[in-house]
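Saturday, quiet lab. Running sequence design on the structure tokens for the scaffold JK sent over.
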């Protein structure tokens, strides 16, 4: 090899070593660097719910004065009618179709009814008699109509002031008439369709609930927590001693006047799903009656003792009424609402200290 060739070979070798060294340094630097780590995901995943909320069950409408399911609920006011209950008035017409009947004691220890109609429309109701001071206390919460034959001016004024629409036969209202098969004053009757047709704009709405109702008889206060009873014997006055007997076949209480079965003029036995007793003071008012007597009333704004009878059972309750136009409500000893069974109700207003109820 010539000197020149030797120098060229040596230079080529040095260039090769340099290239190898540079490659080694590059690989070393690459191996010493940390790999890149992807940034964490901070956005939560979006999950579409697979189920919709459970819908609130829709309860069927009920008649407000009976709690009975209404397949054909009709918008009309409550129509209360004063009905006589002397022996000359029996049997009465229409009582078997009333939603609620209140039995009161008027002057001379006589029983008289306030029959309230809404869910059913009887053809006729009567005999209709005059208004009394306790009537506004009973019917004002219904915000409807009150039909009667007449009355003292001061008592009629109380009825008007209570907010109900007054329908008086003495004022010539349409829909009342006298029959020929009974002697006056026991012969005034009302055509119910005509009387309902007289409702003005302020008194045409259906009534609000008065008593509160369970969805079934089994869930009512008396059936769920009461004591068994087959007979309810009332002493409302010296002249009024109604009684009620439980009838398993019909699921109702059957009414008697003393020892005689009480029937409507249609021949149907008077009955009730619920019989409620309300014990209240029964003071005289300043309104005069015959022979120097005074017309009584009831103290119904306040509270007192009572009883509910349903389904062959009875339970003690407390009644409360906050104002004349507030409904009378019933409560159990623990303060919870005392619910009635769906159906019609008779309310016996028992004079405190003078009247009584015994069960057997």
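Result came back. Writing it out in full:
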């Amino acid at each position: 090899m010539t000197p020149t060739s030797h120098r060229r070979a040596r230079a080529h070798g040095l260039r090769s070593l340099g290239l190898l060294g540079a490659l080694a340094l590059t690989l070393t630097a690459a191996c010493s660097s940390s790999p890149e780590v992807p940034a964490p995901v901070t956005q939560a995943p979006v999950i579409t719910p697979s189920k919709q909320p459970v819908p609130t069950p829709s309860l069927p409408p009920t008649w407000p004065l009976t709690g009975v399911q209404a397949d054909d609920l009709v918008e009309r006011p409550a129509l209360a009618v004063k009905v006589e209950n002397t022996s000359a008035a029996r049997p009465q017409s229409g009582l078997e179709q009333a939603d609620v009947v209140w039995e009161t004691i008027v002057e001379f220890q006589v029983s008289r009814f306030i029959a309230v109609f809404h869910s059913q429309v009887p053809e006729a109701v009567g005999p209709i008699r005059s208004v009394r001071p306790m009537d506004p206390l009973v019917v004002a919460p219904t915000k409807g109509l009150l039909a009667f034959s007449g009355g003292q001016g001061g008592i009629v004024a109380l009825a008007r002031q209570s907010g109900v629409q007054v329908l008086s036969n003495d004022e010539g209202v349409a829909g009342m008439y006298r029959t020929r098969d009974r002697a006056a004053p026991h012969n005034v009757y009302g055509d119910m369709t005509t009387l309902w047709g007289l409702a003005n704009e302020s008194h045409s709405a259906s009534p609000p609930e008065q008593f509160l109702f369970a969805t079934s008889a089994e869930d009512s206060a008396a059936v769920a927590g009461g004591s068994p009873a087959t007979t309810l014997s009332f002493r409302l006055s010296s002249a009024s001693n109604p009684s009620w007997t439980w009838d398993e076949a019909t699921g109702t209480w059957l009414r008697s006047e003393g020892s005689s079965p009480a029937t409507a003029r249609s021949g149907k036995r008077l009955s009730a799903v619920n019989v409620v007793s309300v014990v209240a003071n029964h003071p005289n008012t300043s309104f005069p009656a015959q022979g120097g007597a005074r017309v009584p009333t009831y103290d119904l704004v306040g509270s007192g003792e009572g009883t509910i009878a349903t389904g062959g059972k009875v339970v003690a309750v407390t009644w409360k009424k906050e104002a004349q136009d507030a409904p009378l409500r019933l409560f159990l000893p623990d303060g919870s609402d005392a619910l009635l069974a769906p159906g019609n109700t008779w309310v016996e207003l028992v004079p405190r200290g003078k009247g009584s109820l015994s069960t057997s």
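Notes for JK: The chain has one domain: 79-359. The CA atoms of residues 19 and 130 lie 129 Å apart. Ask whether to fix the surface positions before the next round.
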